Fold this protein.
Amino acid sequence: MMDQTAAIIFFFAAILIIGGLLFVFVSVAKNSPRELDVERYRSRWLSIETALSRNNESSHILCVLNADKLLDQALRDRGISGKTMAERMKGCQGKWTNGNGLWAAHKVRNRLAHETDASIDYDRAKQALVAYKQGLKDLGAI
């Protein structure tokens, strides 16, 4: 009878230990940075850069919007938490080489996305793309 009780206790202890180890493993895996498909990001970035045309304002707007989306996708793919892109960007605050430029680019994107009469010239769009490119590099996406 005592051997059977000891076996049951041992069995439940083993289950608890295995469950605890599994919980720790999942927690660590969930919180560790995820690998990004660098080739996919490079390809998408190249298509954004080549779409920017000096004499086509709609390309200025579209390239800034797409660059912002690509950076946000990289943040999410890296496992950075936050309900909004701004929250995810804040989660990487110390990682940005050009944080001020990146925030300025994101603000330009917000203005383009939410204001009906917003416009952007080629030089400002190019400046925003430089900031987004550096942000993608900082994340290891390109």
Observations:
- Residues 1-32 form one domain.
- The chain has two domains: 1-32, 38-138.
- The first helix runs from residue 2 to 31.
